[in-house]
Design brief:
By secondary structure, the chain is mainly beta. The protein has 1 helix and 13 strands. It has a 5-stranded antiparallel β-sheet, with no helix packed on it. Strands 3-11-5-6 form a 4-stranded antiparallel β-sheet, with no helix packed on it. A hairpin with a 2-residue loop joins strand 9 and strand 10. 14% of the residues are buried.
Length: 163
């Protein structure tokens, strides 16, 4: 009898969760992919590639770099080369300096225990893709320290701008 009651409660919880998700969850227009850095030591030769497709060329998008690091990271910033190939275009490169901390506030972004995550916009204004198709972004750390220690993940986030 005890097992039947436990199964009924578990079934009710699962069904309630599915119903709530079905009514409360809605699709948001976001793509995000983060790649783990092997051993939390980002060697310059390790260049995570993020590939996604753009279908809607009428929309505007914000493009971000996402990073996750530990509190033991030695610098207030990180320099990256963001290499990208957009549909129908040639390979391009953008050098970005991402601020991770400042001397008065400490670590920027969101943190839990000793892990911090930052999301930094790399487009100066919302961007409209000219062509639909496959986009490829490759991230290369270009700091003096190699390998760059205490970096856990690096990635790209693309958000459709709501008008």
């Amino acid at each position: 009898m005890k097992n039947r009651f436990g199964s009924a409660v578990l079934s009710a919880i699962i069904i309630s969760g599915l119903v709530l998700c079905g009514t409360a969850c809605k699709t948001i227009d976001v793509f995000e992919k983060n790649v783990g850095i092997p051993g939390q030591e980002w060697n310059r030769s390790f260049q995570p590639a993020i590939v996604f497709n753009i279908n809607d060329t009428t929309a505007l998008y914000n493009i971000y770099v996402t990073l996750r690091h530990t509190h033991a990271y030695n610098y207030n910033n990180i320099w990256l080369n963001v290499n990208y190939r957009l549909p129908g275009d040639t390979l391009k490169q953008q050098r970005v300096d991402i601020l991770l901390a400042d001397n008065t506030k400490g670590w920027l972004g969101t943190g839990m225990d000793d892990i911090y995550e930052v999301r930094r916009l790399i487009t100066p204004q919302p961007y409209r893709f000219k062509n639909s198709g496959e986009c490829t972004f490759t991230l290369e750390q270009i700091m003096r320290e190699n390998p760059l220690k205490h970096v856990m993940n690096a990635g790209i986030r693309v958000e459709k701008v709501n008008r």
